[in-house]
Specification:
3-stranded antiparallel sheet, mainly alpha
C-alpha cells in the first residue's frame, strides 16, 4: 500500500522538516502562553474591574438637578441613580462562551478554507483588541468584542489542534502534548501574580490602576501574536514519517479551483503500476462542507451525546472558576480592607491546582488507571462536593454581585479556606 498526495502549491509555504517539528511545538506553546497570560488574567479580574468602573461612573441626581457621586451601594433618599457605563463582566463572559459554543460547529469548515497559521494569528489579534478595549471602556464595545472573541476562540483552538496534529507523529504526540500543556499552564501564574502585586493595599480600581494593569497585559498579548509569525505556513499534514509514502507532488492551481491534499491508499497489486494512479481533486468548498457534516455526525453518536452532559457540567464549573469565584472572594470585605488582592491569589492557586491535578493523573496515568477510570471520576466528584460546600459556607451570599461586609456561615470568612478551595477548583478540571 502506498499513499499519493495532491497538494496545493502556494508561495511562502514550507514543507515540514522532522528536525524542526519540536521547535514548532515550542513556538506554538510559548505563543499561547503569552496570549492566555493576558486573556485568562483579564477574564479572572474582569467583573472586579468593571464593578469599580460602574461605581466610578455612577452619579445620584435629585429633582433639582443636584448630582453627587455614589459613595455607598445606594443613592441617598430622593436621588436617582444613573451611570454612563453599565457593562457587566458576567454578561461579557456569557457572550464569549455562548458564541464560542455556536461557532465551534462551523470552525472546522472555516479552518478547512484557510491555513492554520494565519487563522491563529488573525484570531489572536482579536484577543489583543479585546484586552486593549478595557483602556477605553464602552458598554456596547465590550459586548460586541465579546461576541467576536467567542467566534475567534472557536477558530483559534480548532486551528491549534490541526496545526499541532500536523507537527506531531504517533511517537511524539504525547511528548508534544505534555510540553504544550506545561508551558501553557504558566499563563495562570505570571498574569495573576502581576495582578496580586498591583492590587495590594487597593480598595478601588480607578482609571490609572486600570491602565497600569491592562497596558502590560495588552503588550504581553502582542508578544504572543508576534511569536506566531515564526510558525511555518504548513501546506498539509506531514507525510508518514516511517518513509513508506511517496513524496508530495505539486500542481499549479487553476483560477476555478484550489486543490487540497487528498491521500489515496492504493493496492499496487490491483492497479499494477504507479503511473496508473488516478488524480483526485477536491475543491475547498467541498472540504469545508465535509468538515461540517462530519462534526454533526460525530455529535449524533451515542458516546458524544453522553459526553456532552459532562461537557455541560464542566462548562458550568469552569465559568464559576474563571470569573465568579475570584470576584466573590475579592468582594468579601471581611477578608481585609484590601480583599481585592485575593483576586490575583485565587488565579495563581487555581493554576497550582491545575498543575498538581495534571501531574498526578498525567505523569502517573499508567498507575492511576489500573482499576479503570471510575475511581478517578468518583474522586473528582468528591473533590467537587467538598469544594463547593466549603465555598457555600465560607463566602457571603451577595459577594458574587457586589462588595459586601456581610458575614458567612462561619461568621468571619476564612482567607485560608478560600485559597485552599481555589487549589481544589483548579485540580478538579484535570481530575475530570
Amino acid at each position: 500500500m502506498v499513499s499519493v498526495s495532491k497538494v496545493q502549491k502556494k508561495e511562502g509555504m514550507s514543507p515540514i522538516r522532522t528536525g524542526g517539528d519540536f521547535v514548532q511545538v515550542l513556538v506554538l506553546s510559548f505563543s499561547f502562553m503569552f496570549i492566555f497570560t493576558a486573556f485568562q488574567t483579564t477574564g479572572i479580574i474582569e467583573e472586579t474591574v468593571l464593578q469599580s468602573l460602574r461605581n466610578e461612573t455612577t452619579t445620584c441626581t435629585n429633582g433639582s438637578g443636584t448630582s453627587v457621586k455614589l459613595n455607598e451601594e445606594n443613592c441617598p433618599e430622593g436621588f436617582i441613580q444613573s451611570s454612563t457605563f453599565t457593562g457587566s463582566g458576567y454578561t461579557s463572559l456569557s457572550i464569549i462562551y455562548a458564541t464560542f459554543s455556536i461557532a465551534s460547529w462551523v470552525a472546522p469548515s472555516i479552518v478547512a478554507l484557510t491555513f492554520p497559521k494565519w487563522s491563529m494569528i488573525l484570531t489572536s489579534i482579536v484577543y489583543v483588541i479585546f484586552i486593549a478595549s478595557f483602556l477605553f471602556p464602552s458598554t456596547w464595545l465590550l459586548y460586541l468584542l465579546s461576541a467576536i472573541l467567542g467566534t475567534a476562540a472557536a477558530i483559534l483552538w480548532t486551528s491549534q489542534g490541526t496545526f499541532f496534529t500536523w507537527i506531531s507523529s504517533p511517537d511524539t504526540i504525547n511528548r508534544n502534548s505534555g510540553v504544550f500543556y506545561a508551558i501553557n499552564q504558566c499563563s495562570l501564574f505570571f498574569g495573576n501574580l502581576f495582578v496580586f502585586w498591583q492590587l495590594r493595599g487597593k480598595t478601588v480600581i480607578d482609571g490609572d490602576l486600570r491602565s497600569t494593569i491592562f497596558i502590560p497585559l495588552t503588550v504581553v498579548g502582542i508578544v504572543g501574536v508576534c511569536l506566531m509569525c515564526f510558525l511555518k505556513n504548513l501546506k498539509s499534514a506531514p507525510e508518514d514519517k516511517s518513509g513508506n509514502t511517496l513524496q508530495n507532488t505539486t500542481e499549479e492551481p487553476t483560477n476555478s479551483e484550489n486543490i487540497k491534499k487528498v491521500n489515496i491508499e492504493i493496492d499496487l497489486d490491483v492497479v499494477g503500476k504507479s503511473s496508473d494512479i488516478p488524480e483526485v481533486k477536491v475543491t475547498i468548498g467541498s472540504t469545508a462542507l465535509t468538515a461540517f457534516k462530519e462534526s454533526l455526525q460525530l455529535f449524533c453518536t451515542w458516546h458524544m451525546l453522553l459526553l456532552s452532559l459532562c461537557s455541560i457540567y464542566s462548562g458550568l464549573e469552569y465559568s464559576f472558576l474563571s470569573g465568579v469565584y475570584s470576584t466573590a472572594v475579592g468582594n468579601t470585605r471581611q477578608l481585609g480592607v484590601d480583599s481585592k488582592k485575593f483576586v490575583g491569589l485565587v488565579g495563581i492557586l487555581t493554576g497550582v491546582g491545575e498543575v498538581l491535578g495534571g501531574s498526578l493523573f498525567g505523569l502517573l496515568g499508567s498507575r492511576t488507571t489500573k482499576k479503570g477510570r471510575t475511581p478517578i471520576v468518583l474522586l473528582g466528584a468528591a473533590v467537587h462536593f467538598a469544594s463547593f460546600t466549603c465555598i457555600y459556607f465560607n463566602i457571603p451570599n451577595d459577594a458574587t454581585l457586589k462588595e459586601t461586609n456581610d458575614i458567612s456561615f462561619f461568621q468571619i470568612p476564612s482567607s485560608t479556606l478560600a485559597l485552599v478551595c481555589a487549589v481544589f477548583l483548579g485540580s478538579e478540571i484535570d481530575i475530570d
